[in-house]
Amino acid sequence: MTTSEWAIEAHGLVKDFGDQRAVDHVDLNVAPGIVYGVLGPNGAGKTTTIRMLATLLGIDQGEARIFGHDVVKDAHRVRQLIGVTGQYASVDETLTARENLDIFCRLQGLNGKAVRIKSDELLASFALTDAANKPLSKFSGGMRRRLDLAASLIARPPLIFLDEPTTGLDPRTRAQMWDTIRELVSAGSTVLLTTQYLDEADQLADRIAVIDTGRVVAEGTADDLKALVGTAALQLTLSESGDSEVASGIIARITGAEPTRSPESRRINAPLTDTAVVTDVLVALRERGIHVAELSLQKPTLDEVFLTITGHTAESASDVENEERAA
Amino acid sequence: MSTITTTAVAPGFDRDLDRNVSLTQTWRDSMIMARRAIIKMRRTPEQLIDVTLQPIIFTVMFAYIFGGAIAGDVQSYLPLFIPGILVQTVLTGASAAGTTLREDMDKGVFDRFKSLPMARIAPLAGALTGDIVRYLIAGTITFVMAFVMGYRPGGGVLGVTATMLLVMACGWALSWIFALVGVSMKSARGVQGIAFLILFPLTFLSSAFVPTETMPGWLQAFVRINPVTHIISAARELCNYGTFGTDGWLAIAGALVVIAIFAPLAVRKYRTHT
Asked: Is the confidence at residue B49, as pLDDT, over 80?
């Protein structure tokens, strides 16, 4: 009955909250055994998409399959294949770490001794053994996130959804979370993670879908996406901010692409397909008497990719996703 | 945070998966969730304040307010009154089920329950089943107060035990009404308001405190179909005479009808709740 070879296959997913369209015809194809990153700012529809795929939220239009099983018609089968770690820790605040794991183990069908063995194993792997019997109110954000992830791994699911797994974590804990995610994939699981950190998607994800206002605006490997904005980026800082507009015009004419400007800092950022044109740009600027204070040539970052594709930066926040939870 | 993955994860495609939740699993999951509710109760004992204090205060208060007026003196009022206040106390305890459920559901952990291959009814059934502990506390304290005030139930220990079992079972059944309110409303405060509006007619428009003969006809009609009336009558029989009759069967039938109507509605509402 499994005809698909995709771990996740979604076609035209739509979700409306009132008259607001949170997810607008999203298509996703995720191959098994990879980390797939869904990248976008707050309110882009990442959480809503994950919740639909994880059977937590109804689908208004479109369809989705997890390892070939329809998430609506075959939800119970899908739930046996997934682990979900939410943006807000989905563990019980009034219970201890061990009590939490015990309950989730039992709900996954474990019994008697197996419960204790599994809980011990997970507590140890996530460095929570010492805190096992403390109430969660004494836990740090990182510990909570670890417990949450541990709870998602009880049944060794082949597909793991991680909704912003590192939001709010300090850099060290974040690096640990990244290691854990890599280990999960090397053991054979597929991971779909959402993130608003371009760096995170760049480091972890084998493929990335850039999502903005409920739509997938770009999809591919990190390199594919970077190629969209040229092979390199030229960054210029002008001596006089008044020259910014003229300089941009010159750069656009020579490189054939519109540069982005930030006039207040006198910086211009221009995508390049051919680095040789840098000389032409500099000569043209000198001919017009425009002085360059600083110059650098960089491989493009995903930040620039995001800016180029969506017209705004990944960090510009809106509150749609928070409203969703209230709805 | 390392070495979590010593063995390979079985591929997603060739797993043998259950199509549906079996009845045994439904029972199992509900019991696990009941256990969770009881652990939480132990962790936050303030949840038990209502079922502890209410029977102490209300039993004494109502006995002395109504006793003289209705039965001439408090002592002769007790056999009529104690089973009534017992049912009312347990139902007040049950009316908190919706609020607890609503507050619980707003927390992230319910996302996990929804994502697990567990019975959909279990989070609700488990929470309501855990509440039986509250009814047991409320009932026991009511009987202790009654005993202190001089009530000597004619049904003896057996009659009182049977009364407790019947009232706890019916309390569980009727708590599905409040569970539906809990999963339907957006805020815990709203749930509490509606729960009171349901609780008061249900308990006061019954034979709990006063004989029903003095009520107008239309009210008597409601009192007669109110399952609470039959629960109270059955409790009086069991408590005072140790017998189980028509009212007992009507009480059980009423409880079953309430479950049959409200449990599916509550589960449906819970499933579609985002």
From this structure: yes
What DSSP state is assigned to residue B12? S
CATH number at residue A203: 3.40.50.300
Spatial separation of the C-alpha atoms in residues A185 and A203, rounded to whole Å: 14
Selecting from B108, B113, B115 the residue whose C-beta is nearest the C-beta of A54 gives B115
Report if residue A304 sits inside a domain. Answer: no
Cα Rg, chain A, nearest whole Å: 23
| CA Rg value for chain B | 21
Would you state the structure tokens that stand for residue A277, as one six-digit string? Answer: 């044109």
Lowest mean pLDDT among A203-207, B89-93, B248-252, B270-274: B270-274
Asked whether residue B3 is domain-assigned, the answer is no
Q: Is residue B12 part of a domain?
A: no
Q: Say if A234 falls within a structural domain.
A: yes
The C-alpha of B44 sits at a distance from chain A's nearest C-alpha, in angstroms, of: 8
Q: Residues B197-215: pLDDT tens digits?
A: 999 888 888 888 878 888 8
User: In the prediction, which pLDDT does B4 show?
Assistant: 55
Please tell me the distance in Å from A320's CA to the nearest CA on chain B. Answer: 15
AA identity, residue B179 = A
The domain of B175 spans 23-272
Are A93 and B18 a contacting pair at CB < 8 A?
A: no
Count of the separate structural domains present in chain B: 1
Q: What gap in Å lies between CA A147 and CA A85, rounded to an integer?
A: 10
pTM score, two decimals? Answer: 0.82
**The domain boundary residue, chosen from A221, A255, A285:** A221
CB contact under 8 A, A158 and B111: no
Same-domain check for residues A145 and A286: no
Residue A38, pLDDT above cutoff 90 = yes
What does the alpha-carbon distance between residue B153 and residue A310 come to, in Å, rounded to a whole number? 77
